[in-house]
Amino acid sequence: MADIPKDFQEIYVAKDDQEILHPTIMHGDQLTEECVRNVQWTYHLGNTSLEHLEGIEPTFSEFHLKMSLYEVVLSCAPKLKLLSNWY
Question: What is the pLDDT of residues 49-82, one digit of tens each?
Fold first, then answer.
């Protein structure tokens, strides 16, 4: 798992030789966000901001939450006769 954030930072983060110019947001679900934060915590003893993986800002994308909510609503709709005028 540690290779994914390292590769992401190497490819997508704007950086100089040993300095991060601008961090990049990395969207994902809650598990991905937690894993990336744990990898960053593991590398916090590095000497430079590149070794700390400070170029990545992991965030939880609400897209996954909304899709889960829609699945629940649509699975309950026929039972509760909701959205009857939508189909």
Answer: 888 899 999 988 887 778 888 888 888 766 666 5
CB count within 10 Å of CB 55 equals: 23
For residue 50 the two structure tokens come to 């590149």
CA distance 64 to 9: 23
DSSP H or E run through 73: helix 62-80
Would you say the pTM of this structure is higher than 0.70? Answer: no
With a pLDDT cut of 90, the percent of the chain lying above it is 26
- Cα separation, 49 vs 45, in Å, equals 10
**3 state DSSP class of 42:** helix
Domain ranges of the chain: 3-62
Cα separations in angstroms, 7 against 12, 52, 70, 82: 8, 13, 33, 46
